[in-house]
Specification:
By secondary structure, this protein is mainly alpha-helical. Helix content is 58%, strand content 3%. It has a three-stranded antiparallel sheet, with no helix packed on it. The protein starts with 47 loop residues before the first helix and ends with a strand.
Length: 376
């Protein structure tokens, strides 16, 4: 079994520095986005803190009917009052199109204000816009400068993005040694994506010295911060070498968690383990179920890869059993269909900012969609 990344991480993704303590596997609600100024609500909270709390409640559907338009409206009210974190949030809502029509220029405006207010995360998001020329004139030199400034403010995500740029030679001269140094800086600052990227170098990068213990250490830090690819990578590494596991069945637990986050290769590995009886009981029904989930998650690529195993296992099982497992897999997929990048973010203040998870950016997009937590 060989490890490959399900999605290239050699591109910038707008970061959102919000906080949560909940595991979230729900999709963004559908509906037409509304322009913020058109939304009215009464009575009107007077302070920025009150406005942000109400915005959070509307985002999560906590005590009120969930309404992204109202959430965006109240975040912008607080942003207009000068709250830098509300300015950051408002910029992200415009960039991602949450509760409003996508408007990268307005996102840049709010990121600029938040950056002026001292938020390193706003500089990171602004750098992403300048790098790609979204809503602003493209200026990759300025993007690199903003990322360096954010690192000086101890932003691990900015260091990770600089590592991406140097490793890929995007916007700067390609320098893999410098890229690794930036990943190391990001890991030092406890950025889970930097920890994951650095771990990949030690895990299976062909032109890099391997150190599986170092990779496991980095992946574990990333996984514990809720980074779904880190969970998958650590689960795969421990499946290969169980001696590095910190607890019995740690690999299976990690693979189950990353499968819930939508990583189809985790579901596939769980199927392989059940098929071969490796570390778990030999169980054709469980193998078929996991393979069917993986095929739903991974689409055509996964279906082609798993077609033989699915047909062979279906022949071993009764038609009634396989049909029942198909139904179970479809039902499970309906509850876990979002492909998440983060499944758990450390919370700062539940009263001030939304509980959320981040979905993987879609192809052609540089922003990770924020998904709301379930109402309490």
């Amino acid at each position: 079994m060989t490890y490959t990344q399900g999605r290239s991480r050699r591109h910038l993704v707008a970061s959102v520095l919000l906080f949560t303590g909940a595991l979230v596997f729900t999709a963004v609600a559908s509906g037409s986005p509304r322009d913020i100024p058109s939304v009215n609500a009464t009575p009107e909270p007077r302070t920025a803190d009150q406005q942000i709390k109400l915005a959070n409640d509307y985002f999560a559907g906590r005590g009120v009917v969930q309404d992204f338009g109202q959430s965006a409206y109240w975040f912008e009210k607080a942003a207009a009052a000068g709250d830098p974190r509300a300015q950051l949030q408002t910029g992200y809502f415009y960039e991602a199109g949450i509760g409003v029509a996508k408007d990268a220029a307005r996102a840049a405006h709010w990121y600029q204000l938040a950056a002026s207010g001292g938020l390193a995360s706003a500089k990171v998001n602004l750098a992403v816009l300048y790098f790609w020329g979204n809503g602003v004139r493209q200026d990759q030199k300025l993007a690199v400068q903003l990322l360096r400034e954010a690192v000086a403010q101890r932003s691990g995500r900015a260091a990770c993005y600089l590592g991406d740029l140097y490793y890929a030679g995007a916007g700067v001269a390609r320098d893999t040694a410098a890229g690794e140094q930036w990943y190391s800086k990001g890991a030092e600052l406890h950025d889970p994506q930097a920890e994951y990227n650095l771990g990949l170098l030690f895990f299976d990068r062909k032109d890099h010295a391997h150190d599986l213990r170092k990779a496991a250490e980095l992946f574990r830090e990333s996984a514990e911060a809720g980074y779904a690819p880190g969970m998958y990578a650590l689960g795969l590494l421990l499946e290969r070498d169980p001696s590095m596991a910190g607890a019995p069945r740690e690999a299976v637990s990690l693979l189950n968690e990353s499968a819930k986050a939508g990583i189809w290769k985790s579901s596939m590995i769980l199927g392989v383990l059940a098929r071969d009886g490796k570390g778990v009981p030999l169980d054709p029904e469980s193998a078929y179920y996991h393979f069917r989930v993986a095929a739903l998650q991974g689409g055509d690529e996964a279906q082609k890869l798993l077609d033989y195993d699915l047909r062979r296992l279906a022949a071993e099982l009764s038609a009634e059993t396989s049909a029942g497992l198909d139904t179970q897999a479809q039902a499970w997929y309906g509850q876990h269909h979002a492909v998440l990048e983060f499944v758990s973010i450390e919370k700062e203040s539940r009263a001030r900012f939304p509980d959320y998870a981040l979905a993987m950016p879609q192809e052609g997009s540089h922003v990770a969609q924020m998904l709301p937590a379930m109402p309490e």
